[in-house]
Design a protein that fits this description.
The chain is α+β, with helices and mostly antiparallel strands. It contains 28 helices and 29 strands. Helix 15 runs antiparallel to helix 16, helix 15 packs parallel to helix 17 and helix 18 packs across helix 19. The longest helix has 22 residues.
Amino acid sequence: MTTNLTRNEAQNRTQLLEVDTYTVHIDVSNAETDDQTYLSRTVVDFTARFVDSTFIDLIADSVTSVQINGEMLPPAEVFDGARVTFPVRAGRNSLTIEAQARYSTSGEGLHRFTDPADGKVYLYTQYEPTDARRVFANFDQPDLKAEFIFSVTAPAHFQVLSNRGEASTEPGPGPRTGQTGDSTSAGVVTHHFEPTLPQSSYITCITAGPYEGARDEWKDPRTGQTVQLGAWTRASLVDHLDADDIFSITKSGLNFFTSEFDYPYPWGKYDQIFVPEYNLGAMENPGLVTFTDSLIFRDKVTDAQYESRANVILHEMAHMWFGDLVTMKWWDDLWLKESFADYMGGLALAEATRFTDGWVTFALRRKAWAYTQDLYPTTHPIVADIPDVEAAKLNFDGITYAKGASVLKQLVAFVGREAFFAGSRLYFKRFEYGNTELADFLECLAEAAPDRDIANWAGAWLGTSGVSELSLQLTTSDASSAGDSSAGVGTRPDANGAGADAYGTGSRMRVSSSTGARLRGPGDAGAGQAGASSVENDSGSAGAGVDSASASTVEPPRRRSGSETITGAIITQADSAEGAALLRPHTFEIATLGRSGREIVPLDTFRFEFSTESAEVEPLIGRSAGVITLLNYNDLDYARVRLDPESTEAAVTSASRITDPLSRALVWSALDNAVRDGLMPVQKYLKAYARSLGKESHAGIMAGLSQTALTCIDQWVADRNFDAAITGLLGAALDALAAAKAGSDAQLHLANLVLALTSRTARCASDSSAVAMGRGFASQILAVPVGEEIDRMYPEAPGQADGDVRGVGDSGDVGFAGGAGGAGGSGGAGSSGGAVHSTATLPFRGLVNDHALRWNALTALVCLGWADQTDIARENQSDPSSSGRLHAETASAALPLPIVKIRAWEAIREAGALSNDVLSAIISGFVAPSALPLIEGYVDAYFAGLLGFWTNNSIEIARRLVLGLYPKWSVDEEAVVEKTDAWLAANPGAPAALRRLVIERRDDLARAVFLKSTQSSRH
């Protein structure tokens, strides 16, 4: 048996078959019983071009009947567990298959979920790329489109939905045979749905259960077309559904896309349903879009999460045209739907909703995903080589989504917006309800933009891997500093060893270079690092690749005065691949940013194009250099930008003063890339981040920066510097939290950041004021009931004892020093003792307690050993929801006791008995921070079990095991890298998808080893 459909097999079927209609009946009338299977009956009518034999895809417990053109075939002989083989005649054929398919708990196929809040049972399907075969027999490949006619028998109280509207209902079981269980026609209803338009199997959908929701309608202002809208979720979440906001975004999106695409919404109704234990963010099933119900906000969230939900809604809506109406022939061209939906979703978000700065989060967070993926040894072109469906499953990655969308932004800049949309409109009309390849879209675009070399552009951007790196070398003059001939860090001497003057500069000239374009990989630990911050700076730490002794002889980078004029500018592009000489055409904007009072604002901006290795940037000459020179202003390009040294120094100290959020995000992105590549000391980045706490107001930027900072703490800070780094950052976060505006996004974000950092202090070798205050804050949260402000301390809270929390005033309230501001005072990230907090009473007005905060606080205390199973059970009793259950699983597995880890490992090994989300929750607790290396003994068990993880589970469960358990948590990271190499060498024939996951985790860990090796013991 093989479940891995190959591209060659799919192409052979395409040459043989043309599929007309599927008539599918699913009987889930036993869904609320203990039965593990349900009846699936499929009749498929198709045409064969010649006499042959072929197979249809079906993963089921058993097949009870197979009939081809009236001839019965013996199921035991033709069904191997994943395929049913049968003969075909030239011309019309009809195949009928009845089977017992299995209810899923992995989120693949027909997933069944029992809500712990009320015991109600819910069903939904999820198929991409090839899991429709887990529910009904079909040719599960995207280019064999057909009409689907569904009927579903279900308990009478179930709300049943599918891609199309309901045509009729009838009491009783409908056309069902062979059903297990004791269900009868009483209390059962069969729902018949209208035929779909031609579509692929992977975007068919069924949901069933006591879902509740709301209805609305949208009317196309251009055509008068009326589309019925629905928003649905579980009964226990319906009070939090926020249907008005969901419908508002939906209507804005439909207005935008139907107008820009000049093509009416094609799929009839538009239901959106939020379902539990979902493996994805959402899925673009036409007429019935499924979403993870984590997008239904039970607790307070920041505006970044509302923006994210709106983006997901619009991403899926864009698929109604890109992906559903016109679909790729095979998964090689996955980008034809995912890259376009990612770009179009972001465009609609910024232009059609209240989130007008939606590209800010994309620039900092979404593109970080792309950059990371593009630097792995496993990176691939946007148009990838996908030999089979296992490879397809893993290509839903940062390249296909975020890089693809970024490159489409570059394409729009290259050809112009009008030409891009004209090409898209032509594409929809020419290939509606069909399947395409890359050449088809490029042909349409070339017709719309005849003056642009589309083929050359596509070859450079779509058929190659790796990320371009842009750097700028500036020469400036400053009349106020005559006689100063200092050169910026990174200036390259000539062959004779000359410095800045070798570039023809006089005594009043300065040269600043962001060279160092070759990215430094994990194997480069011994190489010196040229670039933005390769010297010891005010963080007190030598830069990557420069030892502390030699660093002290190099003059630190200076900051521009703001009055300097640019006299020379050379831009350079390099590629991330070692030794690569790939040159891409770049169209982007350049800006100089300067001071206006205490703010930093754009002084000059202009568009620039080049495609050579280097070029003179003549438009910069004669302009004010300002304090920061920013390549890729407005983020039109896909490239990693290296700031020159003087711009870097201004960014490190003053990034939060940049008024434009998108420019601020781009500057932070450059700093993120610099620290990841070892071009900026980790401690220096953390100090810059600590300085931003309490000053940054954009929720998306706050979320992106905290993600990088926590990665620094978890992976990149050397063990000898860990205590100082985390206590300093925790102190800064506590100070910023105390000063945050009541009820603001910043206040909520900082509260969760404090809890995240507090849990990580379990690794600290000694206590500190900041650690005690973090523990006290967590205890304070647990002492305050849900719905009340966290404005007082209760001594009976978990983690509280006399002397545990410092700074307690006479009123019993916890006080935090509000004046330190994080970075500038004792709370700075470079402080060895953490923050020293005053005894002033500063309650957290406006910070209203909720279940999310309480679980985060409790889990932090569990990691520290200050809460136990009794506390977890008590919290779960007060929050019996599915979210509460998952939090309880994580907290229970995080208890720092050997027996707990043994039991968690045993549960993980029996992954098939767990649902997808429960498995992930246990893994999260198993690897949670601990004062002792309690799971070190499981390193060898992980490598011994890798092949079994993959072969004994579905790919989704296997992926969670392989990624979640990879021992990056080991105290001996270098040994883990060696063990990984040994496993890869010993298993060259392991599935390619498994090897890819292991190689990528190995790359992450090797990078961490490299970054730690470059750090001085000083901090």
